[in-house]
Amino acid sequence: MTSLVPLVAVRSQRGGNYIKKFYNETWERRYNHSITEQSLTLLWTLSVSIFAIGGLVGALIVTPAVKYFGRKRTLLLNNAFAIVAALFMAFSQLAGVLEMIILGRFIMGIDGGISLSALPMYLSEISPKQIRGSLGQITAIFICTGVFSGQILGLPELFGQEFLWPYLFGMIIVPSVLQIGVLPFLPESPRFLLLEKNDTKAAEKAFQKFLGKSDVSHEIEEVLEERQVQRNIQVASVFQLLCDNTKRWQILNVVVTMACYQLCGLNAIWFYTNDIFKGAGLSPEMIPYVTLSTGAVEILAALFSGLLIERVGRRPLLIGGFGLMVFFFVILTLCMSLQDQAVWLQYLSVVCILAIIASFCIGPGGIPFILTAEFFPQSQRPAAFMIAGIINWLCNFIVGLLFPFIQEGLQTYCFLVFAAICLVGATFLFCALPETKKKTLAEINQAFAKKKMPLEIQEMGHFDPKEKSSEVQESNFCH
């Protein structure tokens, strides 16, 4: 489950100047002249953005992977991408090949794309509905832990020095090796074993490990009844899911939450924190330590959300998180625009950045992945995560590519763009998203039906009884 740590450890390397210097030195050796500023900017932008392209590739291959290998084995095999990526980036300076960093970032993106779909899928299928949200927040907690770990390792006292930066990339291997050592001892998803592999004995052993009891006949019987109902139902493709009229509002909610997850502006802060803090008037010596505080805030906020999510619910945390981000983005814009008027505004800008990060991690940071798992039955879940992954990584690429130009064009008003996106997302979710806390799949479908137009409600009332029975059976076990 620690596969999300290597996903974000690369982001913590904020000493981009060292890498840019390496790019320039490599270019000079290769072509006998310095690289132009435009070419250097292009290479750096490509290095940042290609991670999202790799993530998109990972999202596209995760559905066949989890279907063939299973959830746990997919996570286990995925570590090969992280290890290969770490080796490419760690030895790039020694080899004098700048393309190794770009290729390593791409391969690292594939690892992230697979992880961000396979891990939430696995967690949702092993979680009883009473702790489904809290356990689902592990995804967000791992992301925050990866960011924070990378930030610590990137301090000047550790690997944040010019001659040590390749070793920081090499540290990605450590969590991957830990996962390779731990995952084989965890059981596969019992729902996958029963519903997709028809392996009753393996599912029984998995239930016994997860539930800590020897008699799991009741759980086995429930899923066997569901399998009997779904005998002729195969794992749905993305096209089949998109054509399912009974799931169109669920799909729309997934698309909006995933788009807002990336376009809300937090990735811009993660990628460009140093520039933002410099604009707030902080000295270069202070920046690494102030940046470290962002990772600590992320972890605390994600843990706080995990404790609250089963009490408060998904909807208030998600909408409230976006709403708070709107407020603090506006305050941040005012502070950065007027920071020359008073010294204390510079420090208020830093507080706003921390508040934006905390607001994100409380709700939008992990809940979109939980909702994607809760909205769909077993047969449609892989396709749903593929759709979510495609939206996620396309929007990630857009932010990484366009934010420098938005910042250059709008300057201190650039964050108003993200405030507007958060406001639109919060408004849509307020109108269209039902609460899913401790609800079965059938209850979630009914909640969506109540939010539809009368014609759509009528359509929902006429779906096949066998399909409806199948969803009820499935939800009684997992949800």
UniProtKB/TrEMBL annotation:
Localization (cell) = Membrane
Q: Give the protein family.
A: Belongs to the major facilitator superfamily. Sugar transporter (TC 2.A.1.1) family.
Q: Which domain of life is it from?
A: Eukaryota
List the keywords (alphabetical). Answer: Membrane, Transmembrane, Transmembrane helix, Transport
PROSITE patterns registered for this protein in UniProt: MFS (PS50850), SUGAR_TRANSPORT_1 (PS00216), SUGAR_TRANSPORT_2 (PS00217)
User: Which protein are we looking at?
Assistant: Solute carrier family 2 member 9
Organism, by scientific name, is Naja naja
Short name of any one Pfam family annotated for the protein? Sugar_tr
An example Gene Ontology cellular component term from the record? plasma membrane
Q: Which GO terms describe its molecular function?
A: D-glucose transmembrane transporter activity
Primary gene name: SLC2A9
